[in-house]
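I am writing to request your help with a piece of structural work I have in hand. I am sending you one protein, given as its amino acid sequence and as whole-number tokens for its backbone shapes. Kindly check, if you would, that the fold set down in the tokens agrees with what the sequence suggests. You will find the record immediately after this paragraph:
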Amino acid sequence: MTPTWRRWRWPTPRPMKKGKAGDWQVALEAAGVVAEPRDGSGSYSDRRATVDLRFDKVVAPGWRVVLANRLDVFGRRTEAGHHAVNTLKEASISWQNTPNTIVDLGRINVRQGVATGYNPTDYFKRNAVRAITSADPDTVRKNRLGTVMLRGQVLWDSGSLSALYSPKLGDRPSGAPFAFDAGATNGSERWLVSASQKFGARITPQWLLFKEEGRSPQLGMNLSALLSDAAVLNLEWSGGRAPTWEAELFGVAGPARYANKAAAGVTYTTRSKLSLTLEAEYNGWAPDRAGWDALRAGSLVDYSRYRTLMRDRLDLPTRRALFFYGSWQDAGLRHLDLTLMRRHNLDDRSGLAWLEGRYHWTHADLALQFQYNGGRERSEYGVLPDRRRWQLVSTFLLLTRWRGAYHLQPLSFLSAGIRSGPSKPPGRPSLHRGRLAAPIARAARLSVSSGFFRELADGRAFLGGIFHVGQRACHLARRVGVETRHIGWRLGWRFGSLPHRERIGLRRRRYGIDRDHGTRPLRLRTPR
């Protein structure tokens, strides 16, 4: 008769679905960076660890609580002189009186706009970014501070109506690492009204009216049109009277000037999951080509202040730019995604190129990113301190919801782990060694320089400290009743599939470390 334990299988928890209320999500991100400065002083390295938390739960009928926070810890100090930067992205409560009416109160990350690389109607982006860890525009929009506001929404089948009010809660941004930073997102009193109505099956417009304290109203429009089954046209526009950039830069009073901001792009998607986006961008508030050349040739202090102003506003420093974004899912290999982004300034001919290759597992991602900044002195991208930049990023989903309980997931990229849980026979831990470690290590050696790989090896000790913090969290979770499914106990690689585990472990009726796929297993003594 087959023993009961041999018929047992590891249950696989399912990753959380987006938009499902009542879920915790805790993700850990570890990154190693090697950059080549523009001044030729020699490459340098940096490390980063990130903990991203999101809680979304329906606490009572009609009531919903959302909390999202991100903590970035850098090896080098930031411009503010700190190693850590905390970003409270969202903290709000929602009340749904009827199926078509929603009222939200708290810190909310409102992201307006249909364009990809530049969003003129994203009125709440100013001073909202505390730390930039990627050149991807979508990542920057997601990982920023929300704005404290009161928002009401009315929904129907083909459209919606929304109105929000944001009060003034501070005067200036804070550089403290764990600041609530209300002065950055709520430095003035603002309100926004938006309405959208779908016309037919191909055209969806949205109209916006924005007003800020002491400034003229701004009108905005977003339009998405389906050109064919594979092509989509996105138009975004915002216009209104505003103080000139000279008045903003030098703090002098002057007449307001009407300015237009726009972005127009086409996205084409093929059957092979290849998506290509080409976008033209325009900022009428910025100086023209002659004004930009004069600013570059003038005082370095004024030029630096202007670049800081535009960086905080997440705006184009010049009037005209081109943007290209291409992404390919399952690029010749299942779960492998390739991304290419190119920014080109039409006024000073500088540009940025960003490439990423990302492989997905069930609860982990591994990505290799490369960024190149090219241009002449004091151009938009030629002034950036790094000419080339490599980054290896590992993302792990640590805590998920599965079968009504919360589970701490393994750090699949970091360690071999003892698998234990209430459904497994007690006293029978088993460690296994994966088969993908050597190929991935060889690919990493070929993809990056030897200095980068040495830095990555040194960074394992840094990640090990974070890993021990995760172990402490596991023990604490067990004490409070959270079911712990996987715990890793040593730093290393851990990959592998269920049939491989069965072959080297379960079918041999041995419980312990299998160092070379079953040829010389190490037996662990366990209490009976």
About this structure: The two ends are 22 Å apart (CA to CA). DSSP finds eight helices and 23 strands in the chain. The CA atoms of residues 366 and 394 lie 5 Å apart. The chain has two domains: 31-396, 398-496.
